[in-house]
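Per-record layout

source: Aromatoleum tolulyticum
name: Shikimate dehydrogenase
length: 286
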Amino acid sequence: MATAEMNPLSISGSTLLYPVIGYPVGQVKAPMLYNQLFAAIGIDAVVVPLEIAPADFPRVGPALFAVSNVRGAMVTIPHKPACVDFLDAASAAVKAAGACNAIVKRADGTLFGDLFDGIGFVSGLKRAGVEPKGMRCLVVGSGGVGAAIAVALGEAGAASVGVSDINTDSAARLAGRLTSFGVCREAFVATNDPAGYDLLVNATPLGLKESDPLPVPVERLAPGTVVADVIMKIDFTPLLLAARERGCTIHMGREMFIEMAPLYLSLFGYDGYTSDGIRKLVGYKD
């Protein structure tokens, strides 16, 4: 089918499926981006959200890949750590973070997992002119995305990474992995007090709901601190608005989202795309 004739919702008997697996999935933006992108470049594939409850995931998650035309999947909260259990092989980032957000079914039927949140986040920072090398970083949230970002910041040369989570055991496990895998100069369990850090990352869902509290005491933010949020559904989250009022540099979650796109495409076998090229293809505005 010619590219000009393809509709983002065209589905045929040969269409390949790439589910977005999560719970909930109402906030995911991947179907809008990738289905538009597949149509623009003439790929007969669709991305569909699948809401799988955590109790069902150990049974349903692996079974999805028995479907012949499911060639890969994108994984979101809360399943990034759990899906590691049924992978046959994984990248170094997955092993260090203990989480996975990208799965491809290889020709022999085995599953390989990778982790793109962190790489996408750091790429977005650098594209915005922020170099994490030498920065003192605070990552609030030690789940899948927080773990990925902590690993990537360490690999990018951050001076230190503090991990804060209401689940201190989870924060301690992540800080321990950062140290044991040698990806970070200094990693430690931290509070959510942002004073003394160069970069603050909100890697929690706080901000998705109007009733959510702020993830950190913003009055402790120093002007000039880089404040980033991973939430993609809202560009200017309450945290980012409060940080901007205090003279901080802010960084939106959608930048991580678009920077991950060429990584997913390459994993799924569609090479040669860049984030800048994808922005032009889909009319994505900075």
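summary: The longest helix spans residues 253-267. Residues 1-6 have pLDDT under 50 and may be disordered.
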